[in-house]
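Troubleshooting: if your tokenizer reports a length mismatch, compare your output against this known-good record of 315 residues.
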Amino acid sequence: MDLKQLNAFVAVAELRSFSAAAKAIGLSQPSLSRQIKQLETDMNVALVDRYNRPLQLTEAGQFFYDKVSSVLIELNNITTMTQRLSTPNTALNIGFVPSVLYGHLPDIIATLKQQNPDIAVNLKDISSYQQIEALKSGEIDIGFGRFAHQDAWIQQILLRHERYLVALPKAHPLANIKKQRLIDLADNRLILYHQTHLPVSTTTANSQDEPVTEPLLHLFAQYGITPLMTTEVSDLQVALGLVAAGEGITLVPASLKTVRTEQISYQRLIHENATSPIYLHTLKDFIHPHTPNLLSAIYQVYEQKGITYRQQHFE
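Known-good structure output:
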């Protein structure tokens, strides 16, 4: 059994075609067939059912694919990180979720560049979930996200909590109420925009009720409230566009309170736990040399803005 055989098998398993798999990995079809046959001979197990159309894996083949595909992904991550260690990138590639851009990220980057004139910074708009794979592949070196992640390759620190505000159409009956309660919002159409959901804890997963992992619905559920109507959209900007059009309400981090203010009223929730966290995450085994400089800039801006935080550092 060797790496070429495993890659050939995974290609066949995923594409369900010898010809398509051969083309994908740059082999002739006879060469690919020999690789798979040799793998089956070495293991003394039939992995591919060649008599069905479309091609299928045997039960043993499906089990083998489920296990070996994750191993190959891990091996690819290790290879990529080893290459990065040998030729480190001098530029700092930063991933961020769009909502962070409306907060203090521009000030942080300006402070970072002012204190480190020679640093090159590249910014990439990328969701919290996608940032994890982007860190592993080397697409980004560090990421600002809104969700905690459990991943053996990743370490993260909590920068701060940002209060949620209610975004309501200016003509809404509650638009001028300064302190809002979730129970008073339950009869409205709630517009959901998060593409990443909360992780399911072991305790929650074992409960009889299906866990609520959509972040806004989870917040309502903490108070035993279920919104009467919901609409799911692709991103935060679309959600605010629908609010501006009078199609519903939503909850957004406080840093977005200057967006579409002609059509939208932003009001504070009375609930102390109605917050959206901001995390900074990077790889455990590969911390970019400019990461301490970035953290220093973050905390300096927080000091200037009077933002409550607890200073942390990556290990």
